[in-house]
Every structure is written in C-alpha cells, then in structure tokens.
C-alpha cells in the first residue's frame, strides 16, 4: 500500500501532524494528508496585537541578516524540505516539472540583501519601518509617521512557488504576523520554507510569527471562526473571481481586504516592426517569451496581441508570417521558462480546432499536438474565446491605428508589453487612463519587479498599518480652544453677520 504524503500544519514554530485528514491537490493527481484545520482554528490567531512586540526588538539589519541566512538554506541541492516539496509539486502544480524545478532553484535569489533593501526602500521606506519619521506642517504642527505590522491572513496563489516566499518576505520586513492558507495547486512550498526556518532558528521572532495551513476554500464554518477582526486585521487574497468574491463577505470594520485579483495581459506591436525581417524576428522571440513564460499561467502573460500590421491584404499576410515566427520562437524557449503544456485544456483545444475550418476569418498555426498555438485573426477582431486563452495559445489581431487598441484595455488589464520601445512614449500616458496597470518592454512581462507597484497598488504599503503622532502646542500651532485675535477666513464665513444676527 502506497503511503500518502503529509502536508503538516505550522503554527508559529510548531510542526503539527496530528488529526490527519485526506485531501486532494488541484487536478486530482495527488491525494495527501494534512491536519484537520477545524481542530486548530482557535490556535491559529496570534491573539492580542500587542504580541507583535517581540518583532520590534529586531532592527531592520537583524531582519536582513535572517533573510540572508534563510536564503543560504533554501538551496534545492541540499534542502530536504525543498526537495520533497518540489517532487510533490510536480503533481499538483499547473506547470511542468522543469518549470517547477527552475522556480525552486530561484528562491534563494529573492532573499539577496541588496534586492530586499531596494524593494523596501522604494515602497515603504526603511526609515518608516525603523522609527517615527517627522515633518513640520505649515501651521507649526509636528507630524510623526511610522509603519507598523499587522496580523494578516494570506490566501496565496499557487501558479508560481516564488509567491509563497514573497509573502513570507513581505511579512518579515513589515514585522507582521502571518497565517498562510496554502493553495491546492501548491500546498507544499510555504510549508517547506517554514520548516527550513524552524530548523534554522526555531525561537527567532520571525520564525514564531509564521503559520502555514491547508484548508478547503469556501469552508464557511471554518472561515467564520477565523476571519474575524479580533483574530486578523488584514486579508491579502490572490485568486480567481469566485474565490475573491467569496472572501468579500467577511470584510467588516477592522478587517481589510487587499485584493490581488485575476487579470489579463496583452501586447502591442508597432508598425515599425513590420518594416524589416530583423524587426519581425526580434519582436517574435520577445513576444514568444511573454506568451510562453510559466506556460501562460501567470496574469502577466500575453494572450491577445494587437499588431499594427494594417488590415489590408498585405498587412494580413505580414501578420501571418509574423505568427509563424512567433510559433517557431515558442518552440525554442529554454525549458526553465516554457515547455509544451502539462495538460492542454480540452475546451480550449476544441475552440482552436474549430477555427481550423474557417481560414477566411482565422489562421491557426500549430496546436495539433497540444504544444500551444498562434491564432492569427484575418479581421480586426480577437477570437470570441479570448478570455480562455491559456497553455501557450495566443491571438494576433491586426490593427491600423493605436486607437483601435484602447477599447480592448480595461480594468482587468494588468500588463501591456510594447514593441518597439519608442512606441511607449505614445502609450504610457494613455493606457493607464483606460485601465492598464503595468507597461513593460516586450519580452519582459514575466520579469516582475517587486520594488514596483503590483495591480496598480503598492501591496507592501497596504499591508502595513500607518500610524501618525501629531505634536502641537499653543506656542507653535493655533489652539482650537483659544479664540484667535483675527478671525480666520473659515471662521468669518461661518459666523453670522450683523444683519443675520
């Protein structure tokens, strides 16, 4: 009889393997055992927020030292927890083994000291984490501002293992307390990192303020006990529309939702691209990278591409040629970035195969073996199933003018890859007005920079609690209880005139 793997529960430094129940990873390729979260729901919350105090005995340099040490431990070649998690994730992850392994091998780079300093300084500002930052206002008031940590629940996405480590890292630098709900398509990564932290420094405050558990999403009996303001102050939720809509029912005074909701991304290819063979080849490999990265499982990946080839016969023929170049480039990407999909979506494949019968309106390049496909619209319209594009399947749409793109950009548009670079000057002040949240050089869509905003917000700033200390005295600032010798404009406007009196 095959023994099922165990995904333990971690509660602030304690590894729990009791009261196991069987659950299934997403996709049905793996069943595993994990503690029944219902039995531990009352132990998961930190309790009183004053229990964060031990984190404030740490300096930011102490946090950086810990992160660096953890980075050295997160070496796939020597870390047994990561090795086990990586092997199990081959079955649960939406991507193929080579992509999963590449992600695990890159975890330690996320904890490089300089990278952490850069990201924190450019968002929160280290000085706001280390103490009170003063400023003097016009009326003489002294204002001090500091960013404090919070008791936070993280509902993490499972399409990339690095998201679990990013969540843990954000929690550390903010001096917060985290409960991570492990996703069904990546139930092992956060656990492996947490167990490494316990092995490395079991009594360290940063280790003791991390909990990781798996429970089935939508379990209202469980959630109604945990998702309360006396337990947590913020929920950071990644996920699809249905899961995020479900979480909103728990939002109330004292409990804030930070939503990193599902997005779609696109690309814009300027007319200069089609002026030369070299330009088309260059754009093709860049676009292939944006389509194929993570096998198109990320919000950042290109799905519909608007190409300024023109909509006349010559322009369409150029776009068909460009489509072949993109398809060829997809097959040449390194297997650490992209591979043939793990499981080509049968519904999507049915749509793609149906288009093969309609050469007048669409040209399908590839896809017969489930390796991904490029669909070239022969008219200036995307396919009707554009929201389903996945598994390295993208749609090239011809346009005459950049104005034709704007109606396709909306609040669901996350990343827009642009080529050539000079085209950005026409677009970067216009696309955001239509809803685009990130503009990137074509080919770099998956190279997310955590030093910048995400989904048009700054998550690290939102995850903290921003507290102000206001200092004033009658000697420096007009006192509300003292009548000024000369009424202010506001007071004069509000006081009755002699006639009114």
From TrEMBL:
Domain of life of the native organism: Bacteria
Keyword entries, A-Z: NADP
Protein name in the entry: Acyl-CoA reductase
Lineage of producing organism: Bacteria, Pseudomonadati, Pseudomonadota, Betaproteobacteria, Burkholderiales
């Amino acid at each position: 009889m095959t023994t099922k793997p165990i995904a333990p529960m971690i509660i602030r430094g304690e590894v729990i393997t009791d009261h196991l129940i069987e659950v299934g990873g997403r996709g049905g390729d793996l069943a595993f055992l994990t503690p029944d979260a219902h039995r531990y729901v009352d132990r998961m919350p930190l309790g009183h927020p004053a229990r964060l105090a031990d984190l404030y005995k740490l300096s930011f340099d102490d946090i950086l030292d810990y992160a660096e040490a953890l980075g050295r431990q997160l070496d796939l070649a020597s870390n047994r927890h990561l090795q086990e998690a990586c092997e199990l994730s081959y079955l649960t992850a939406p991507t193929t083994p080579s992509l999963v392994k590449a992600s695990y091998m890159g975890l330690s780079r996320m904890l490089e000291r300089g990278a952490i300093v850069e990201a924190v300084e450019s968002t929160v500002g280290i000085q706001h984490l280390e103490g009170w930052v003063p400023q003097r206002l016009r009326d003489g008031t002294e204002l001090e501002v500091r960013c404090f940590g919070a008791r936070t629940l993280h509902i993490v996405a499972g399409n990339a293992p690095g998201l679990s480590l990013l969540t843990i890292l954000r929690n550390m630098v903010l001096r917060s307390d985290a409960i991570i709900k492990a996703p069904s398509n990546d139930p092992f990564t956060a656990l492996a990192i947490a167990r490494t932290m316990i092995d490395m420094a079991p009594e360290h405050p940063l280790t003791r303020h991390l909990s990781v558990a798996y429970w089935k999403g939508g379990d209202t009996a469980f959630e109604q006990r945990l998702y309360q303001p006396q337990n947590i102050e913020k929920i950071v939720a990644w996920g699809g529309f249905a899961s995020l809509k479900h979480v909103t029912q728990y939002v109330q005074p004292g409990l804030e939702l930070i939503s990193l909701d599902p997005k779609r991304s696109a690309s814009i290819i300027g007319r200069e691209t089609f002026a030369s063979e070299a330009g088309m080849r260059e754009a093709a490999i860049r676009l292939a990278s944006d389509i194929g990265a993570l096998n198109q499982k990320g919000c950042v990946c290109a799905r519909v591409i608007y190409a300024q080839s023109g909509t006349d016969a010559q322009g369409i023929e150029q776009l068909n040629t460009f489509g072949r170049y993109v398809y060829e480039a997809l097959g040449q990407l390194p297997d650490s970035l992209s591979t043939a999909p793990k499981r080509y979506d049968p519904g999507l494949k049915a749509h793609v195969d149906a288009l093969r019968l309609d050469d007048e309106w669409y040209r399908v390049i590839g896809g017969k073996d489930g390796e991904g496909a490029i669909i070239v619209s022969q008219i200036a319209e995307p396919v009707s199933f554009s929201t389903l594009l996945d598994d390295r399947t993208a749609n090239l749409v011809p346009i005459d003018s950049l104005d034709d793109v704007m109606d396709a950009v909306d609040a669901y548009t996350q990343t827009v890859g642009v080529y050539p670079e000079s085209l950005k000057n026409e677009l970067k002040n216009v696309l955001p007005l239509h809803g685009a949240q990130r503009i990137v050089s074509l080919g770099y869509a998956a190279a997310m920079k955590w030093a910048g905003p995400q989904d048009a917000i700054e998550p690290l700033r939102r995850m903290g609690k921003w507290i102000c200390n206001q200092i004033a005295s009658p000697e420096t600032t007009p006192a509300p209880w003292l009548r000024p010798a000369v009424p202010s404009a506001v007071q004069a406007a509000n006081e009755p005139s002699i006639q009114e009196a």
